[in-house]
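Fill in residues.
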């Protein structure tokens, strides 16, 4: 299947942390789109995993992104796939939709780790952040070159819906307007 299958999807939110976000170029837009993905995943029953990199130093996940309904994994490795329990939470058959910061560090290394572990990965480019645009764009190209699908938040929403007859269609459309 070439589209994102909502029946086997998982949303991964990487390191949107309070002390990091003020330095992120267009960080508010990345947070807004990550929130849309979280709300959509909640709407259609897709599990969400958050990671926090060195939370003592970088703070907790920003308040705009609720972690209360999700699994939260603390890590010190940039690549979450190297964190002890991480890959156990991402079954091999899952379509993993990824959003996060920084695109060229933790997001990229985690995506490459997931690809190396034979997971299917979709990177939501409009829900990524880096301090510099050049770093973000270079990371996107590298992740794509290694097999990640590059998508947008709206693409994910419509692929998770699959049809205009979905019972949550109107609620989902309200998320992207």
């Amino acid at each position: 299947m070439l589209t994102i299958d909502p029946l086997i999807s998982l949303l991964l939110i990487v390191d949107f942390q309070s002390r990091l976000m003020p330095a992120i170029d267009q960080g508010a837009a990345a947070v807004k789109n990550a929130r849309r993905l979280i709300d959509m995943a909640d709407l259609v029953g897709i599990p969400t995993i958050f990671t926090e990199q060195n939370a003592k130093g970088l703070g907790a996940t920003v308040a705009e992104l609720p972690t209360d309904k999700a699994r939260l994994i603390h890590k010190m490795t940039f690549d979450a796939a190297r964190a002890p329990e991480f890959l156990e939470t991402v079954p091999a058959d899952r379509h993993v939709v990824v959003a996060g910061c920084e695109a060229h560090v933790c997001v990229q290394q985690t995506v490459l780790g997931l690809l190396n572990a034979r997971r299917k990965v979709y990177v939501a480019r409009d829900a990524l952040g880096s301090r510099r645009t050049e770093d973000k764009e270079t990371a996107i190209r590298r992740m794509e070159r290694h097999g990640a699908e590059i998508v947008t938040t709206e693409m994910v929403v419509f692929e998770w819906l699959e049809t205009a007859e979905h019972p949550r269609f109107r609620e989902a459309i309200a998320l992207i307007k």
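The mean pLDDT is 96.
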